[in-house]
Design brief:
The chain is α+β, with helices and mostly antiparallel strands. It has 7 helices and 15 strands.
Length: 239
């Protein structure tokens, strides 16, 4: 098994994050600094910053191997696993198991975010080509015009070395709109709005794929249901 897969299955972090930690020299195998792409044997001992990372025990039949939760992130919480960051999402939730966020919401944004102990699914959910929808309700600083809505929906806005994809946009009120994205570019909606001379005053994520925020209040979380997991991860062996 590759080292980054081992760390993700242990619930420590995603594979991408594991490669970053390995590259920084923070991961050892049998006391020796590990290299990216390293393969592990059954008896190898893995540690991060000197702390041993144990293998996850096999789950009983029809039992979940991993944690999957929906969290209503309030404004002011930062989507990082770094414990020394004030207001980090892991400390805010206080879950008994090691979990990490799937994607992120800006510190100034609020709403639904998923967290898991299963690092193998993170890239699958986040990749734009998998067309995983994310729905947002947005308030801006001036009247929403038809031209603005058409421009947002059309796509093609330069951003982070790429361009935005076409998306679904509809008006909610004089200064509000709903937008459904399949991309996850950093501060995408804020930058899209700025491109047309608008400033975001409130950004709320209400849905990820088939999972709705529902009645979760800010700061509350819940476990995903089996039906929600089937929509997110049809292959039950990944649960």
């Amino acid at each position: 098994m590759r080292l980054n897969k081992y760390l993700s299955e242990a619930g420590f972090c995603s594979r991408r994050e594991a490669d970053r930690l390995i590259g920084e020299g923070r991961v050892t195998v049998n006391g020796v600094r590990a290299r990216i792409g390293a393969e592990l044997g059954e008896e190898d001992v893995v540690a991060i910053d000197g702390q041993t990372v144990a293998r996850r025990a096999a789950a009983a039949p029809h039992k979940r191997r991993h944690v999957y939760i929906a969290y209503h992130k309030p404004v002011g919480i930062t989507c990082t696993t770094e414990q020394d960051v004030k207001g980090n999402i892991i400390e805010a939730i206080g879950h008994e198991q090691r979990i990490f966020p799937i994607g992120r919401l800006d510190k100034d944004s609020e709403g639904l975010i998923l967290l898991t102990s299963n690092g193998d699914i993170v890239n699958e959910i986040l990749r734009a080509e998998n067309s995983k929808e994310k729905e947002y309700l947005v308030g801006v600083n001036k009247d929403v015009s038809p031209e603005f809505l058409r421009g947002m929906a059309r796509g093609g806005i330069p951003m982070h070395g790429t361009k935005t994809l076409p998306c679904k946009v509809s008006k909610l009120g004089p200064v509000g709109f709903r937008i459904v994205l399949t991309q996850g570019l950093n501060r995408q909606i804020r930058l899209m709005c700025a491109h047309f001379g608008y400033r975001v005053k409130r950004l709320f994520r209400s849905r990820i794929v088939n999972i709705q925020i529902g009645h979760l209040k800010p700061g509350q979380w819940r476990n995903l249901t089996d039906a929600e997991l089937r929509g997110l991860l049809p292959n039950r062996s990944e649960w």
